[in-house]
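Lecture 7, part B: from sequences to assemblies.

Below are the input chains for today's worked example.
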Amino acid sequence: MSARYKPVGWNPAKIAYDAVLIGAIVLYAMVFIRIAPQFQHVTSPLDDWSIRIDAFGTCAFLLLSMVLCIGPLARLEPRFLPLLYNRRHFGVLTCGVALTHAYVAFDWYFTASPTDPFVALLTANTSFDRLHGFPFELFGVAALLVLLLLAATSHDFWLAFLGPAVWKALHMMVYAGYTLVVLHVAFGALQDARNPLLAIVVAMAVVTVITLHLLAARRERGRDRSTASLHGTTPWVVAGSAGAIPEDCAIVVHLTDGEPVAIFRHKGRLSAVSNLCAHQNGPLGEGRIVDGCITCPWHGYQYRPEDGCAPPPFSEKLATYNLRIEDGQVLLDPRPNLPGTFVQSVGIT
Amino acid sequence: MRRRHRTAHRAVWFVLAVVLPLVLIVAMAVRQNGPLEASAIQLAPPR
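Predicted structure of the full complex, as structure tokens:
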């Protein structure tokens, strides 16, 4: 829903979100740099550069773990949805912190090296034949390249250029990036850490990320199976009781082909459209009707319920679906109409 | 989120649920404890 190009569509919520994030990152780095020297071993004190490397490294790891928790948290509990709205800024900031960590480490490692620093980084450690002392730096380099690629393509321009399906597939590389980060930490900092705190924090972060994703996966698989069996018994899908849909809200039905459909109630009448926002596949069914238009909870894109079209001057369109009501039950025709097709809304009587 | 995306996410996390803990366990297993981490030994007083 963009009539003209804007590099970032700032609004007060996004500014507050980013301000809190940047403030938290600065605070974390300052506190870490201040208190870390108190925990160092007396026989091998850390220099200032090492403490900075650890401060930005741990910060980047924790930020990336948090980014990965946001998706499943929002699916499990809608109260976390506001964290999802600006997740791309979270990711870009994470990349910035990781880049700072790499810059400080790079400076510290090779300041006195007679070899070119980039060559030294790739050739200084060639212990590929053993786990202890494995060149963990290479995992970090690979992870940083993944984060840079994702940050560079996080803008809406790339979403529109690549299309939502390709863009989402590309951004699933964050899981490979996270694995590389865990390898980097496990065979790097954890090998040298004399304080068990780091190992405990890393293990807790990894377990939390995995647990949330598995819980969300289990919940969605159960929902897929229940709607698939329901759809298999009748050409029209029983979507539920008409009276159970709150005014200006929706229920979401998952069809056997994987397409989720949102059925909205507005002024006592029902309309059905694809649940996927044309902007970024946002979950329209978790949004509300504002000023007569379905409003995506992610970025505020709007569509008319009866024809799935964005109001002028915008041009986005959604597929619509036919509905009917029998014995108080909403029945949905699983065959989608062409995007923008007008369908008369069904009155609840 | 389309079903094939959800299926891909699920498959990825079922694999990572095994791989990531395994990486941490192996890393801790190969970790070498240096003399700095050994518990202190009380020396007998000189006779």
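Note for the exam: Residues 3-30 of chain B form the longest helix (28 residues). Keep this in mind when comparing with the next example.
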